[in-house]
Design goal:
Structural class of chain B: alpha/beta
Oligomer: heterodimer
Largest sheet of chain A: none
Helix content of chain B: 25-40%
Strand content of chain B: 15-25%
Order of helices and strands of chain A: HHHHHHHHH
CATH topology of one domain in chain B: Rossmann fold
Number of strands of chain B: 10
Number of helices of chain B: 10
Largest sheet of chain B: 6 strands, mixed
CATH superfamily of one domain in chain B: P-loop containing nucleotide triphosphate hydrolases
Helix content of chain A: over 70%
Radius of gyration of chain B: 18 Å
Structural class of chain A: mainly alpha
Distance between the termini of chain B: 21 Å
Shape of chain B: globular
CATH class of one domain in chain B: Alpha Beta
Order of helices and strands of chain B: HEEEHEEHEHHHEHEHEEHH
């Protein structure tokens, strides 16, 4: 039983690796599907914007409110903007953005491609002289890889604004003082690795969603399963990639 | 003993330039399931051949081998003089531009309007066409199937019969020489099924196409078939016209016509 689980895990890992290899082999060769890439970027980026912004705002607000009592205990309330900005920009905003996108976009891609597979739309595309891998997979993976970092930068900004309001609920921090402290604390080495890792998060969300949808089977039940496992696997992968990124940043002494 | 009935005389008169599709000794299996076992078939120009067989007998696998969606384990699948399994992607696309495929589930793209669905193959295969030429072809294809008013509708707004007609219009828009139909009347009521079958005959005459039709709907078979090929146990078990097979004494053949 355990051996079967291990074998299935290794098979799945191998299949995902092959799928990723196929992406690199096909995505950068002509013919390029720019129109479809823009359409997907619109859906992935623009349509996720409100959800990401609201979540980031709430996270900024909540983290600030929760952190305040501990700092007050040590008489370090003035450090609140410094502490909150580092934790939000380095970790919370990118990871929350990636998880929101894994839920919203990963499941959407998994379900859409899954239903296209079971209703023979992917076969139909191939018969129409279109490489469905390029048209459906390459465009979606590129869209998630390019737009999730932009969403993460937006989430950084909005969460910091949430932090400002949070800091002013029980205390008084002026607008200028708050932002001066934030920019004083944040260094290039905080922002760059945090943005860089979101490219990998975006890639993982896109490739897993597409892999699960593209290989969907067993009819409508399979579509549901594809959407579900796309969210589970890509969310897990976001955490694993985050762990790796933190280790690499630490080794390179960027923090 | 395999009963081989005579081909209809009127069909013989339409035979020109030899077969447009020729399958020779095709084998295909999935694991231990041997779907096609030494299957051979010729489709002549202007001919409508129906492949009749039970569900799961490998009919859909057969036409997917012809269009290159599935690779046979062995045997040759020659379409318009080219052996499909040997072709690279570019050459396969050239052949596919001349072969239409109507899917059982219609396979209309849900995220696109009817117009975009019809434009999709045109933009791939006729990249140098102007916008007005594309528009004219779309309207012509929709008029042919009597649904010009649906041009800006979404597939989800259409009934089953309308979807089938739109799928047929999309198949015909490239003016293919050969059309492969995968169960064109399945899931439709008898009246709509008859309408679709008549439309298939009408369009085949208008555009002088040759067709392979996968079906187990006898009403459709009776209307469209010049010749019927019975796919039983992965082989071409019997062939002939509708009346020949209906009057056959073979038990397996009789099962379909009772």
């Amino acid at each position: 039983m355990k051996l079967t689980v291990l074998r299935n895990f290794l098979n799945e890992t191998g299949d995902i690796s092959r799928f990723t290899g196929r992406f690199f082999a096909e995505a950068f060769k002509p013919r390029y599907e720019f129109a479809e890439l823009l359409r997907q970027a619109f859906f992935v980026g623009y349509k996720s914007l409100p959800l990401v912004a609201v979540t980031a705002f709430i996270m900024g607000l909540v983290i600030t409110i929760q952190s305040r009592p501990t700092l007050v205990e040590f008489g370090a309330e003035a450090w609140l903007p410094k502490m909150v900005s580092v934790s939000l920009v380095r970790e919370i905003a990118p990871v929350i953005t990636a998880l929101i996108c894994a839920g919203k976009i990963g499941s959407g891609i998994g379900a859409e491609l899954g239903s296209m597979k079971v209703t023979e739309q992917i076969d139909s595309m191939e018969v129409s002289g279109t490489n469905p891998f390029k048209f459906l997979v390459a465009t979606r993976v590129m869209a998630t890889t390019l737009t999730i970092p932009i969403l993460a930068v937006l989430a950084d900004t909005v969460s910091l604004y949430g932090g400002y309001l949070g800091a002013n609920i029980h205390g008084v921090v002026s607008w200028d003082l708050y932002w001066n402290q934030v920019f004083d604390t944040l260094a290039f080495s905080d922002v760059l690795p945090s943005v860089l890792k979101t490219f990998f998060f975006g890639f993982a969300i896109g490739i897993i969603g597409c892999y699960k949808g593209y290989n969907s089977n067993k009819g409508t039940e399979g579509v549901g399963r594809s959407a579900n496992s796309a969210v589970v696997v890509s969310s897990l992968l976001v955490f694993i990639l985050d762990l790796l990124a933190v280790q690499i940043i630490d080794i390179l002494r960027l923090t | 003993m395999i009963p081989q009935a005579n081909i209809m005389p009127e069909m013989e008169t339409e035979m020109v330039d030899g077969p447009v599709i020729q399958l020779k000794n095709v084998f295909k299996s999935f694991g231990n399931n041997n779907v096609l076992k030494d299957f051979s078939l010729d489709l002549n120009k202007g001919e409508n051949v129906v492949v009749l067989g039970k569900s799961g007998s490998g009919k859909s696998v057969l036409i997917k081998c012809i269009i290159g969606l599935i690779k046979p384990d062995s045997g040759t699948v020659t379409v318009l003089g080219e052996n499909i399994p040997d072709l690279n992607h570019t050459d396969l696309d050239k052949i596919r531009a001349k072969v239409g495929f109507l899917f059982q589930s219609n396979a209309l793209y849900d995220s696109m309007t009817v117009r975009q669905n019809l434009e999709f193959p045109l933009r791939r295969h006729r990249a140098n066409m102007s916008k007005s030429e594309i528009d004219n072809l779309v309207i012509e294809a929709l008029t042919n199937v009597g649904l010009a008013h649906t041009v800006d509708m979404q597939p989800s707004e259409l009934s089953g019969g309308m979807k089938k007609r739109i799928a047929l219009a999309r198949t015909l828009i490239l003016k293919p020489e050969i059309i492969l139909y995968d169960e064109p009347t399945t899931g439709l009521d008898p009246i709509t099924g008859r309408e679709i079958s008549s439309l298939m005959c009408e369009l085949a005459k208008k555009y002088n196409t040759s067709s392979i039709i996968i079906s187990h709907d006898l009403n459709c078979v009776k209307i469209v078939a010049n010749r019927i090929v019975m796919l039983i146990d992965g082989k071409c078990y019997a062939q002939g016209n509708y009346d020949d097979l209906k009057n056959s004494n073979d038990k397996q053949v009789q099962q379909f016509f009772q």
